[in-house]
Amino acid sequence: MAVALAALLFSTSALAAPYLDSLRELSQRADVSALVIRLDDMSVIDEINADQRLTPASVSKLYAASAALEQFGPAHRFTSRLTSHGSVSGNTLNGDLVFVGGGDPALDNPRLWSLINRLRERGINRVNGNLIVDDGLFGSVPCLTKDRCDAQRVASHAYSSPLSSAGVNFATIQANVYPGERSGDAARVALHPIGLSGYNIDNEVTTGLPHTRPSLRVWRTYDGGRSTLHLRGALPMGTGPYEVHRAVTGPANDTARVLMAMLEDMGISVSGQPRVQTNAGGGDTLAYVESRTLAEQLIPLMAYSNNYMADTLTLDLAADSGYNRPLTLPLASQSLEALADRALRENFPSQATAGTGPIIESGSGLAVSNKLSARDLVALLSYMYRQPSLFPAFYGSIPVPLSAPSRTLKQGNFDWLTRINAKTGTLSEPVTVRALAGYFRLQSGGYGAFAFVINGTRSRPSLSYRQTVTAYQTDMEAILADY
Asked: Any signal peptide, and if so, which residues (predicted)?
């Protein structure tokens, strides 16, 4: 504690000449919270309203990743199982086959194929019973954000998928669209896995001439207990396939349909029907499959800013801690708030005052009710920097602009592209949100940390890319040039 206080005194007296000129100018017409420090001595390089708490968008995922690493450890794996209370006679299972969801944030078709193949390796090719999906680890998770609630009826994206401990493919439906052989032919649509039931296809995509610009619009609706995938547009012949993903209505029910199609394709017949039942597990484990390690999962979570993965991890923390079911994201996010408060008190004790602290109600940042300051974020980055067993996995998960899949940070000088690891955050409603937080390598070889959170205001809700991203990039490049 004495070291932290001494570092704090040094940081307040060692404030250098202002670097954040572009953000300082922006703060005259937008809400801006910014802080840049050197981590070894906690000296402040520059700051703007560092304690103002704003909507942070997807930089909230830094807390979900940190809390998961702290609670589970980088080598943790999630387990999905097939169980039954029935008996096996020859090649027949007499009883229900139960898939027990283990809260794997990245469970996908290839891992389900592996799971079913292990069941077949036991010699089972017939099930005299139902296929049941058990989502009891979380219970039925309610939708509490507008995006997720709206997506239950109409989904035009993948980012708003609902949550379940038994979800697969990030709770999305995958369709591949193939142009026809000749101009004017109808395109062909294939769902994955092949044989997946429960979807109507409303396809009006045509085939265009070679070298024409492709256009494809896809959305899913849910009405009368059935989902319909609507496709419109034109695709040039000789191209594709075009892969699309859209949020499903009910992730556990969708997993039941996926499993049913896979079992049939693998030659395992099920006499009954697929359905969802909470806490139907138990009995004997017939097959299981483990996820990739948590450290490995965090890399795509951060690189693609996967909302489903971040919020599923947040629910995993609550389930592991024994919270009552059904879980909700605000309840589960209390562990993230506790981490945020702890990090702030350990790294900036004089700024960690009693009263309202950091607010986190979603590990993904989809909830606009999340409120974090630049100091909150830098405190977390400092906290993880001082965890030798966790920092390598955490640091390694945060994208470097040069190799990141997102184009947001691709434009910049060589230092910008190679010397920072940064998580972005973006929302467009009800006001523009642009945020960036992460680490930068000092020319001396040490580390710095930075956080920029920008929100539009009620009077000026919309902010341009140039006003936001260009502003913090210009300022950060000036810091990199001197440090």
From this structure: 1-16
